[in-house]
Structure formats: structure tokens, C-alpha cells
Amino acid sequence: MNTSITKGSRNFYGEYSLEQWIKLILTKEIILPDYQRAFVWEEEDVKELITSLKNGLFVPPITIGNYDGTTNYILDGQQRLSAILIAYIGLFPDREKFKFKDKEYTSTANENDDLEDDNEDIMPIEWQFKYFTKDGQDKQSILDKIDHSKPVGGINQ
């Protein structure tokens, strides 16, 4: 995945390893802007991404923006980065525990969301990787503090 990360006034371009992406997420060097949608991928989507990465298949780039000189915002690629973090942690968010209530979901929708056609089985869940990063900056500290997820095939499997 190619990207540019800005630190202060410096740009960092190039391919990042999975370990580098995970470190950037866990140390909060890249964050999600508040306007980013909730996580919508299914467990199978996470597994397919990890398989694609393992097989060297094309994965679209991640786009990062820096507007205040200090904060690196994920503009595109939140679903992919969240999936990478989920695989690293080895837990998939439990949809029942993170399910939006209808009123909450409607309040997060924008003009691109077709609420009439939404199927409850594929509804977004009220989860972003901020959920994991609030609990720690490494895998063990996160695992020690969470219990709202179910095991999923991880990066190291």
C-alpha cells in the first residue's frame, strides 16, 4: 500500500509493511476523522484482504491527509486498515454488541446512504479502530482489556 505520511513538515512516501501500518494505528500517528463511516466489512472480507496481501495481490492505496501540520487523517482506506488491525489482534467485533440502534444509524447517514435498501445483516457496526487503540498500544494490552469480539483468522495465521 503506497502512501505519504506527513510529520511536521516532512512527507514520507512509499510502501508500508503491515507492521508499519499497525504501529501507525496503535501509536495514533494516523487517526480517523470524525466524519468517517462506521466499519461495514464482514469477517469474510477481512480474511479475503489478508489472503490478498499474503498472495501479493493488488490492494488499493491508503490516502492520508494532514491539514493542521500535526495530525495525519485517514481519508481513504479505513475499512482496509481496520481489517488489518482486526487480523493483527485476532478478534472480529461482535455485530450484536456493536450494532447501531436504528435511530443512531440514521443520524450517521449522509446523502450517499440508501437507508431504504439497507439489510440488517450488512448494517455497519458502531466500531472503528479507535475502539482498540483506546485500550492500549500493543496487542497484549488491547487483548487484556477487551471482551466484545470473537476470534478471527489473524495476520500471523
TrEMBL record:
- Record protein name field: Uncharacterized conserved protein
One family name in Pfam for this protein: GmrSD_N
SUPFAM superfamilies in the cross-refs: ParB/Sulfiredoxin
Task: Note the InterPro entries from the entry.
Answer: GmrSD_N, ParB/Sulfiredoxin_sf
Domain GmrSD restriction endonucleases N-terminal: where?
26-128
In terms of superkingdom, the source organism counts as Bacteria
